[in-house]
Fold each of these.
Amino acid sequence: MANESGTVGWFRLFQLGQHYMKTWPMEKRLAPVFAENRVIRATRFGIRVMPPLAVFTLCWQIALGGQPGPVVATALFACSLPLQGLWWLGKRSVTPLPPTLLNWFHTVREKLQQAGQAVAPVEGKPDYQALAEVLKRAFSQPDNTFLDDI
């Protein structure tokens, strides 16, 4: 995942961002605490809307005789918006959890184990991707009321 210096390549960040976006549970209860819900919603919107908007802008400006420089710059900017969201999500997924979230992460894992769920052992310091996987599993439980008191 990371190279010798501990960094992740930009292409790999986009892949990690896509994986994180698919893993993160889009629950209303998480929205006030985490920015992920807003970023994922905006990124999905951008992936759907920005490429056609860029093509429309290009065609419209060329048809009206616009200057090619600003037209291409506008189209590239529109296409870059979803990539910015994926990059942010990729960076976030490999960010280690802060101490307050680390305690919460372990509490949710313990509650899952108490509910009879097999939880994989944590390798190294947990990151936001590990949190997303635990939360997704917790919210997929038929009885996830144990999350209410956390």
Amino acid sequence: MVMKKGLFITFEGLDGSGKTTQIKLLDSYLKGEGFDVILTREPGGTEIGRKIREILLDKKNQDISHKTETFLFLASRAELTSKVIVPALGEGKIVICDRFFDSTLVYQGIARGLGVEEILEMSLWATDGLVPDITFLLSMKVSRCDKRIKEANRKKDRIEMEENNFKEKIYKGYLDIASKNKERFVVIDAEKSIGDIFEEIKSRVLKHLKDIESGIVK
């Protein structure tokens, strides 16, 4: 199904909050309804992005500087935006992205202390001003996210290995960013059941799609 305009959906939250599960559910549902959906993630989504992802998440790169880390995220984002996201939106497709610039605002701007305004300016430069239409924040406390990761017996990457005080800054940072962008952000209690969370997500997406069709969203 080709729409009048594309729809850009992003998912944010701490690792272990359930983003991957909900992204897969939404992707499957929308495709089942006949929509043309592009599923991607950050960092990654392109050949260059995948190589950058390997560098960023490699536990051997513990001494990488905060600014270098930030620029690598921005480089991956610029490539993904120009090569994948913008072309897909131009064709009226739905793009679902696991993380986007809000992650950098929180992780590097707030938790790393590099400054939210500075990171936002650079991020918008990297994306040529592209901002998600809807951002779902799956909000879950740090202790619960860590427990989930342990229960899944999943090895932590470089960033997941950060101390809990770093993760607490991220948790609070996300809520702060969301409170200042209420028109775009949908904050969801990730402690709810998978089904209840998905119904909330589906309801918001369907409303936005209806608004696009009716011309309310331009």
Amino acid sequence: MADPEIKSYEPHHESQSAAVTESLPVRLLLMAVAFAFLVIFVLLPLIIVFHEALAKGLGAYTESLSNPDTRSAIRLTLLVAAIAVPLNVVFGISAAWAIAKFEFKGKAFLTTLIDLPFSVSPVISGLVYVLLFGAQGLLGEWLKAHGIQILFAVPGIVLATVFVTFPFVARELIPLMQEQGNGDEEAALSLGANGWQTFWYVTLPNVKWGLLYGVLLCNARSMGEFGAVSVVSGHIRGLTNTMPLHVEILYNEYNAVGAFAVASLLAGLALVTLVLKTLLEMRYGAEIAATRGH
């Protein structure tokens, strides 16, 4: 029985190799094109950002970052991320658990809604909040009568940021939970664990690396979001400008050093995110390989 299996496997393996193996000139050309794109569209812009930020020396760089409006933009960006990311974690875990572990009517519709921010322009999503909460919007009169301000304030910025970032955690966890199945949870329940214990000691440890990966991407997008936040913030300097919006204002005022100094912080965040993303992928991939090996 062993010989037929080996014979049937080997031709398939050889045909796969023949299908993916290219000649050396073709491989060199593909690598050259890939490296050229990376240098032109990724590496070169990063170099320019840091070069322009330090063009007038370290003193001008630090002075730009110590500007009160810049500090306010940094604080607001961190505050919005600190609110939006935990909310997305709660939503992402809940949605992933419901979709991966249970069967219910509307499951496909819920999955489609999770992908909605990927297909809708961030500017459009910001405009929707204006139509809802603006002075002439659907809820505008009621909010004004009760002294509640959503637009041109922190709540509106948080809402817009949550909308554009809520797929990241859920989209990382859904396929992971689906692949793992319900076996571990059923075993825990059969041993007397309640629902909370099953989640905390079984489900959550099984998805911890995927969860960290989704949180990392969500946080990076939260801090770098421009389109939706631009619509709902009102661009009030020192109050409702996040770091991306502050970069635009400084650049439009021909303050190149200040604009690139703030941009360098965002670029630094992108580099840190890239490093952490790579480390998580390595750790996450190794854990999946070990799990499949068992």
Amino acid sequence: MNNQAMQAATYRRTSDWQYVRGMRLLDLASLQGGENVLDLGCGTGQLTFELARRVAPMGKVIAIDPDVERLKIAQATMPPDIRNLTFFEAKAENLTQIADQSIDLIFSNYVIHWIPDKNSCFEEIIRCLHPGGRCVMELVGELMPFLRDVTILTGEPGRKLVNKFCCLTQNEWIGFFKQNNLIVEHTDWPDLDFEFNTFCDFLDWWEGTTHGAFLRTMLPGDAIQQMQQQYADRVTFGGNAFQGVVRKPHSPERSADN
């Protein structure tokens, strides 16, 4: 098993909290049977399968992710009852597999904070949505100080990883949506709370969720031992997410303020 495959497997094993958040986001999406859905950054597929079931039998789901190894896990674990789901390797900024105005709902759970070129990403989102279609998303609102502090202990690789978190404030998101003539139906800035039984459990999750951009082997010699002693009982930290629901206007004349 190569390193990318190992990180994908670790991500699948340690990403329960994202699944829980994603199930809440699914409820917010108010899916209807027969809708066509794009899962933007499907990962290893647990939420994608839920999307497919909620729009079946007439609705269809297209799921994209740039991580080939995560896609392999999703395809290998797809339940046999699901027949309305297609996977593609793709980036959110370049959705050439998706036809114009063909999607009712774009669903994205903890992905968009990784995307530096949000203008290109939303150009594609707007192109793919049919008039009146919606995008429902949750993502990191700000990189948690604990994650930042641990990550930059690795030096230059850690600083590069920290800089990959392309986060906006809630007000910046609202302004961005309005500039793109999207109707803002809902925004929130919910608290995120993380708890791991051991520091090694935390490291497993952080390696997996960062696609291996962070590795514990990058930490200086005695850092892990010191942190294991410091966090002997458990590791807890918090931060904030951004949650949003936006809709493409039915006509280009309609303002995002209406």
